[in-house]
Amino acid sequence: MRTEALDRVKLVFSLFDADGNRYLEADDFELMAERVIQAVPEADEAAKSAMLAGFRKYWTTLVRELDANHDNRISFDEYVACVLAPERFSEAISEFAESLVGMGHLDGDGFIGRPAFTALMRAIGFAPANIDALFDAFEPTDADRIAATTWITGIKEYYSPDKAGIPGDHLVATPTT
Fold first, then answer.
1. Which segments constitute the EF-hand domain (predicted)?
2. Among 58, 88, 90, 98, which lies 20 to 30 A Cα-Cα from 78?
């Protein structure tokens, strides 16, 4: 496992741990889903429902794969063991990625504009400068939009234990703006 991959999941764990108790719990995922859904109020109801389902699938996969003591909490060590194991987590990540991108894919043309992208990423808790660096790494069009497929691929790469030098690394790096 690459150091970069570990740094990426440390950040996501800290963002998902909404109450700061150093464990992930179902309530953390419900709260995060609510924040993300509220970030783009103009998204249609199907996208909002898919987003909620994506967060719930993420959580239920973690619990099913990792909660051996049935305490309904996931520690950081347990989290890393699952999310950086594609054979255990790729289906949940795919559903999550598609639903998150679907929230920003407002007109169905295959592109997401910077405002929707930024709103969604801020709702998760990423820093604005890092969000801008990530969006720019996705090589936006002249109209400042990125392809939905590019973002989906970027999310999947973010959870890959063998990837480094990927756009998602901008979310962990100290911005140089």
1. 4-39
2. 98
